[in-house]
Amino acid sequence: MTPDDFMTVAAARALRDGVTLFVGIGLPSTAANLARRTHAPNMVLIYESGCIGSKPSTLPLSIGDGELAVTADSVVSVPEIFNYWLQPGRIEVGFLGAAQIDRYANINTTVIGGDYDKPKVRLPGAGGAPEIASLCGEVIVIVRQNARTFREKVDFVTSVGYGSGPGSREKLGLPGRGPIKVITDLGVLEPDPETCELTMTQLHEGVDIEQAREATGWELKVADELATTDPPSDEELAALRDLLDTQKAAAA
Amino acid sequence: MTPDDFMTVAAARALRDGVTLFVGIGLPSTAANLARRTHAPNMVLIYESGCIGSKPSTLPLSIGDGELAVTADSVVSVPEIFNYWLQPGRIEVGFLGAAQIDRYANINTTVIGGDYDKPKVRLPGAGGAPEIASLCGEVIVIVRQNARTFREKVDFVTSVGYGSGPGSREKLGLPGRGPIKVITDLGVLEPDPETCELTMTQLHEGVDIEQAREATGWELKVADELATTDPPSDEELAALRDLLDTQKAAAA
Amino acid sequence: MAELLSLQEAVASVVHDGDSVAFEGFTHLIPFAAAHEVMRQRRRDLTVIRLTPDVIFDQLIGAGCVRKLVFSWGGNPGVGSLHRFRDAVENDWPAPLELEEHSHAGMANRFAAGASNLPFAVLRGYTGTDLPERTPSIKPIECPFTGEKLTAVSALNPDVGVIHAQRADREGNVQLWGIVGVQKETVLASTRSLVTVEEIVDELEPLPGAIVLPHWTVTCVAVAPRGAHPSYAQGYYDRDNEAYRAWDPIARDREKFQQWLDEEIYGEAGRSPAGYARQDAESSNQNAGLEAPRR
Amino acid sequence: MAELLSLQEAVASVVHDGDSVAFEGFTHLIPFAAAHEVMRQRRRDLTVIRLTPDVIFDQLIGAGCVRKLVFSWGGNPGVGSLHRFRDAVENDWPAPLELEEHSHAGMANRFAAGASNLPFAVLRGYTGTDLPERTPSIKPIECPFTGEKLTAVSALNPDVGVIHAQRADREGNVQLWGIVGVQKETVLASTRSLVTVEEIVDELEPLPGAIVLPHWTVTCVAVAPRGAHPSYAQGYYDRDNEAYRAWDPIARDREKFQQWLDEEIYGEAGRSPAGYARQDAESSNQNAGLEAPRR
């Protein structure tokens, strides 16, 4: 069992059955499909490629795999998925990854180091993330926790979490609630209800808080009562293995 | 042979084969379908109901008859037909009717008499006409010519022809060329190239210019060389009868 | 998930006095049965919204349900005037009628803006016409990049969106095809929605040109066979052009209209499942079949 | 009417040095064959436009065709970085690359505005991010009715729109289905258009979810079987996920990339009809069939 397994299972558990979910590719997709195969069979998966209500039997490699279209309730154009579906706040949960994240859950997926025109590392960029972050009912972020990703200040704000703290989202007029959970390979962080600062509220089994502190580029706040993630159950692990096998099988 | 037959046949003749045509219901629809059955089999009929490339075998009573959808190349939503198809000037010819028309081919289909809030006659209103009039490559108007319809000043400008004369369309930024022909039960009027004023350029067989003058609510300009409409050929009349029969048959 | 209700329950649940209610369906799939139930439940002070008021709004206006009309073309297609609409505007009968008047392009964009949760839409429209002077929901707007002047229209977000569709499944996923008008936009723009359908099926088989509204976007679904008559439901029955023509003499005369109302809406006939549809059921083509578009 | 040309003729006819060229297809139906022909004809100074640059733009950038990139997400989906894109941005190799960077929502709206002949589109987007500071085609705009602040993006009207579709008929009417992305908008927004297709058929049989671009909206059509490989054409072949993974080591290394270019694009292999596709033809599922969406 790897830290990534913990992360994926914890993310899957964070999804309630029946919710409408905007799914990005990679770990969010794995977690969403795991949830659908375990406790949340009625979750509605929505992809930026225009697929609404996809029920993939294999784990897609991209957000536009054919499997997502042929199993969808409806396939709409890309302008429509953003304008008619994401923009009005119809989608309850958005699932995002990050290359860098700060204490207010602002996310960078654009550039690292140097300046914008001549960065040290050019990342893929925004994709659907800025609007997912601002317009979904709430957001769950999945990101590995280490000194490169958890930064005092992100090099570029691609997607807004809580901006510069309390009141920022309201001032910007962002309708969604923002990131309610950041799920990592070490545990789970949640925004403090008053300061909006990400606070470690849960550690995966076998992780101690010092590890989390070292993996965080700012002075990490820790909840008074720190929970421990229940380890993935046999059922969850089996479902996860099955799911990953479907991707391998589809690739073969 | 009625004056309306003359009008319908003259309107059909005004359509070149292969053009894309935005068709309203009533006489414009009859004329367009007549043209398609005679000299213009490759004309592309487009209806505001979202039907593109309809090839109706019967003459539809409404712009949304099922026959228009099932014979179309493509059926799109109403927002799309206006935004993606009409608005960019993709449609070469627009075909409009009128309840009142003035010397600059401005059209009223909104209210007659009284004031807007308490009119003597409440007409249907704008429909697609204002944007057809401004955005199609060019416009052909079909309207019976008499003292009630040909007015010195229309009671309400629903759709713009040449506004208040030369330069009006440019000043308003209307991209289409405007009405190039007004086809009536008496003959054909065309805008003077310099003054934009509607000028009688053609009379149907058996109509004399005095009749046209009396039927016009302003001092009618007449072209130096006044043409006479060739009477509907046997072939045209037969095609028109056939077409009207299809509507009766469909209603039965 | 959409609730499956009887038409009576559905209208009672979602349409209240004073509501703004869009009834959409562009010539095709006009929700007549739902409008008749609104009349039967004697709803009052409604703001009714529709691109083409058609016979359906002539009836609602004549029955005294309507305070305000938002529209773009108010005629009886291929036949002539809407006499109840005209009587209300010209003579305040049965009550004065407030108008908010647009073009089709403007109304379509207003629904699209509403469905997109934008407060307005931008179009090339209305320029040079007398409409902006009469309609406060039309304003000029300037392109922030080019400085070009365009037209803005305010979004439509009705309290209730009512449409008719061919069918739904048991979860309330709705499928419609043929001319789809602004029905998707109407449901997505409205706070509540009611979809009447020809039938409930176990599974929505995909069809060319069909769109699906997922059950979580629909408030309630009610079965109303022939619920679009005298308009049509592609694949189920054809447009009853004769009924549109027959409406003209009824609507021309206040007494005949009242009689129609008493008999066909409030009376015994109105309580039969298809209401107004009943009398013409035989004349329509029941064998229209599930026609796919042909080229 | 759309002209039916060979791919070589079509590219020579519509794509010129210095043009802005959108290549669209959202994961599905990516016009790889057309891009390879552009590389083979050594087009230079292009502004290339695409929501998801993908491997197709990694190749065009690496081959030195591109001066400027307009985009919203530049990765190899499910695999990692686009190394040729990164090498151009980070190291100016083979040439400096100008960027115009958006979000998907912004790019989709820019194409929709372009297709609508509007100079801009309005959305709720970008607020609070660092993007507007870097991208002059993003500006604030105020609702003329409510005063609310929203975001405007300028329209995209490329010189050329290039897409791949499943099929066309002999008149050049184009049909595509499955994930349709912004392909319709791309063709309608562009001054000229090139559509590559899997095949020409006598008649476009209607299919669930299919859209049709009438021949009079398309400049030219070229047959390019497997022309979307390694992406996919629903109903014809599946996505070649392995080829996406195999691209990573090729693109990581300038020399390997150059070798790939010499062999697969400029060399003998590149002149075979399916070009780059050839080597992987056997691994794909040729029996994908004309799948309709299933629920």
Describe the structure.
The complex is a heterotetramer, with 2 copies of chain A (252 residues) and 2 copies of chain C (295 residues). Chain A is α/β, with parallel strands linked by helices. Chain A is built from 8 helices and 14 strands. A 10-stranded mixed β-sheet of chain A has the order 4-3-2-1-5-10-11-12-13-14, with helices on both faces. In chain A, strands 6-7 form a two-stranded antiparallel ribbon. In chain A, strands 8-9 form a two-stranded antiparallel ribbon. In chain A, helix 1 packs across helix 2 and helix 2 crosses helix 8. The two termini of chain A are 25 Å apart. The relative contact order of chain A is 0.16. The model of chain A has no long low-confidence stretch (mean pLDDT 94). Chain C contains 9 helices and 15 strands. In chain C, the strands form 3 sheets. In chain C, strands 1, 2, 3, 4, 7, 11, 12, 13, 14 and 15 form a 10-stranded mixed β-sheet that branches. The C terminus of chain C is likely disordered. Chain C folds into 2 domains: 226 residues, Glutaconate Coenzyme A-transferase; 51 residues, no CATH class. At the A-D interface, helix 3, helix 4, strand 9 and helix 5 of A face helix 4, helix 5 and helix 8 of D.
The CATH superfamily name of the largest domain in chain C is Glutaconate Coenzyme A-transferase
What's the architecture of the largest domain in chain C in CATH terms?
A: 3-Layer(aba) Sandwich
How many E strands of chain A? Answer: 14
Order of helices and strands of chain C: EHEHEHEEEHEHEHEEEEHEEEHH
Name given to the CATH architecture of chain A? 3-Layer(aba) Sandwich
CATH structural fold name of the largest domain in chain C:
Glutaconate Coenzyme A-transferase
The biggest beta sheet of chain A reads: 10 strands, mixed
Order of SSEs of chain A: HEHEEHEHEEEEEHEHEEEHEH
Strand content of chain C: 15-25%
Output the CATH homologous superfamily of chain A.
Answer: Glutaconate Coenzyme A-transferase
Derived structural class of chain C: alpha/beta
Output the CATH class name of chain A. Alpha Beta
Biggest sheet, spatial arrangement of strands of chain A: 4-3-2-1-5-10-11-12-13-14
- Please name the two chains that share the biggest interface, counting residues whose Cβ lies under 8 Å from a Cβ on the partner chain: A-D, 58 and 62 residues
Mean pLDDT of chain C: 92
